[in-house]
Amino acid sequence: MxxxxxxxxxxxxxxxxxAVMMVVSGYQLYTAVNQRSGRVRTAAEASNLAYSRxxxxxxxxxxxxxxxxxxxxxxxxxxxxxxxxxxxxxVVIRRCKPFADSDITRVTALVRYDTPVKEVAHAVxxxx
Length: 128
What we know:
The chain is an alpha+beta fold. 38% of the residues lie in helices and 24% in strands.
């Protein structure tokens, strides 16, 4: 009886099964990374929008409302249309006084986007 070189059918099937499993797991990893990078890109765009709006509104304006007690007082809201963020995009600018006995004003820019609503905020303290 002579033996022939090469692989048996069972060895080839096992190798093929392992190769398919590796390709499938690689595709799942690629899909997960791609989806996460899209969410991170969207969050970065919202962060850039909040930062640019806070830079536009960082002039000192004396306020009397307390940051803790009346967070909504003195807020101005605007809808943004020149962005690629999903859903309705609104930017809320709030000015409040963080300390009762100082002239410092806290300016906060809050960007709301997507459904369900996601939020990104930036804040800066401004003194006269």
